[in-house]
Amino acid sequence: MTMAGVAGIEVPIHGLLPAIDSSRVYFIRRFDRLGRSDKRHVEDFAQLLPVTRDAKYHTSLEQVAGVIEQHGTFPALEKPKLARRLLFYFLTGTEKRVSLCKARSPSPVEGFRIPYCHK
Asked: Fewer Cβ in 10 A, N or C end of the chain?
């Protein structure tokens, strides 16, 4: 997470805390919650693509970009954000699932945006 933050990717609050047994415990703020009881609507790209469960890991980046274009609040901002994240994941050898968060505004005009979704 720290490397992603240094690379300019939005990351939630995270870190290490000392545990009772003197070990360290990693913590991360959840992006899909707004407080203790308010859940944020999150959609996996596979849920927004017209694919079967078996084919969800065989989609293309063009299909994902199409989902952002169709459902994104600001596609011109979200697509470069996705590209930066994918490049980071590739260069660091990490695999991450990318999801979309429902926009904070209740306006029906607003769509989804790529997390990190914060208050």
From this structure: C
Q: Do 82 and 113 meet the contact criterion of CB atoms below 8 Å apart?
A: no
Question: In the chain, what percentage of residues exceed pLDDT 70?
Answer: 79
CB neighbour class for 114 (10 Å; exposed up to 12, middle 13-18, buried from 19): buried
Round to whole Å and give the CA distance between 61 and 46.
12
Residue whose structure tokens are 């968060």: 101
Sequence-ordered alpha helix ranges (H) in 7-57 = 45-48
Model-wide pTM > 0.85: no
- Name every residue whose Cβ is closer than 8 Å to that of residue 2 and which is 6 or more positions away in sequence: 11, 14
